[in-house]
Amino acid sequence: MHISELDELEASVSDLLTMAKVELEQNRLQQQRDRQIQEAVSQIEGRLKPLLAKVEQMLEEYTREGGSPDSETKLKLEKKAADIRQEIAEAPALASQLADRQLILSEERLLDERITEQTTQWRYELKADLLEMIEEQSDFFSATDAAIAVRGYSNDLKAIGALEEVVEALINQINSHSEEGPVARLRGSHEQTLTFIYNKALENRSRVDRAPDVQPNTRHRKSEKRPALYTDLSGKVLVFGGHDRLQTAVKNRLRDSIINLIWYTEQDGLQLAAQGETQIAGSDLIIIVTGYASHSLTERAIEACRRANKSYEIVNTTGMTRLLEVIESGLKAKQLARHWK
């Protein structure tokens, strides 16, 4: 097995482990959400039901003692009782909103951890590419010129504590091709030394017409670009259902992609969602989110897709991670299908 294949295997295992970790954490968060809803409903009902009982008891006393039915106080009590009953009836919905707000915050943290792990892996692969680049330089000037490429990644190297190792490799390679002995040496910190060699490399470039431009290959890294989630996605995605907080969170995560995301939530109402039905025919991916979507909104969206002979994905979630997975897998499948046409 070639070393590059080992790198690829290692990276794929790392990605798979990260995905497994995210999936397990998603399940835990969903279970936690359900518990939070139950606890919140219990707390709300635990405070409101005793209040309702007191108000209803007082109304019964009014009835028993023949109080005036037009009494302003009695009317206020009746209104207060109705308000409390409404609050109790809406307790599950309120608890769900609070739990989903916390769920999205937790999912944001999960995604940030995922990109951090991928970036760390990419930085170690970058270090390997830079060390190979330095080792491959066969003369004094190209070895010195390598400092320009290294300096461009100094922050990435510092983040994994690898700047010292790479700078020392650079010093050794320059000295190994120097006709005047070990001219490169540590000057202050490793970062200061790199800056000094970098400036020398720029001076060397200014003296010749065709200067070397030493850059690392991507033998260990999959790409020259730092990892970023969803940036390679493109297409038109139409979403029905969900809630405003979910819409905002998903849009923020997809802001660096080339996705035209059109979304009609339950809060938008059926009339506005009906306008979205005209977008179905030209969409690459249609998703119906049943979390917070009314039966009428869901049925209308499904029927509109059937009339347009367009397939759709039904996603039963109130969180964003599952929805992002569906968008990513759906668009990549479309891209792959277009590639093989």
Automatic annotation (TrEMBL):
InterPro entries: UCP020408 (IPR016772). It comes from the Bacteria. Belongs to the UPF0751 family. This is DUF2325 domain-containing protein. It comes from Pseudanabaena cinerea FACHB-1277. The lineage of its organism: Bacteria, Bacillati, Cyanobacteriota, Cyanophyceae, Pseudanabaenales.
